[in-house]
Amino acid sequence: MANTPRKDSAPDSGVLQAKPSAAAAEHGDHDRIVMASRKADGSMDQVAPEFIGDKDVAIAAAKEQLAVQAASAVDVAARGVSSKEGEGGAGSSEPDADVQALKDAQDAAVKTAEAKAEREVNERHQGLGG
């Protein structure tokens, strides 16, 4: 197996070094990801994330991830607010206004989350990462 010669014309970024030193720490480390891990508030839980791989797949994954999280957050925030216990057991063919309001709020949160997901991937996507 032949060794590839080291290029002496590497950019002076402080990361590529002839001898190991702490200079790389000045530029910091970052995470290369295909799909983000999320904190409870929906923000990414990585260090300076850089999306790699197929961009359309990363966008679809981020949209689904944030949409589910946003809809769940709306549901949790509204839980108990729309309870109508004790109003009789008879059903009605009329849609429940509280349920419809919750669905509308979830749909709005999903739209916002999907737009955020697309923005995040577009800002941080770095190609296929070959």
Folded structure, characterized:
- This protein has 130 residues and is mostly helical.
- 8% of the residues are buried.
- The radius of gyration is 24 Å and the shape is elongated.
- Helices cover 40% and strands 3% of the residues.
- The chain has two helices and two strands, in the order ββαα.
- The model is unreliable at 81-87 (pLDDT under 50).
- The chain has a two-stranded parallel sheet.
Major sheet: arrangement of strands? 1-2
Number of helices: 2
Overall average residue pLDDT: 77
Q: Which regions are unreliable across 5 or more consecutive residues at pLDDT < 50?
A: 81-87
Helix content: 40-55%
Sheet having the most strands: 2 strands, parallel
> Got a strand count?
2
Radius of gyration, whole Å: 24 Å
Strand coverage percent: under 5%
Distance between the termini: 21 Å
- Structural category: mainly alpha
Succession of helices and strands: EEHH
Q: What form results from the Cα inertia axes?
A: elongated
Summary?
The chain has 130 residues and is mainly alpha-helical. Helix content is 40%, strand content 3%.
List keywords for this structure.
2 helices; two-stranded parallel sheet; mainly alpha; 130 residues
Give the secondary structure arrangement, pairings included.
Elements: E1 32-33, E2 50-51, H1 55-78, H2 97-124
Parallel strand pairs: 1-2
Helix pairs in contact: 1-2
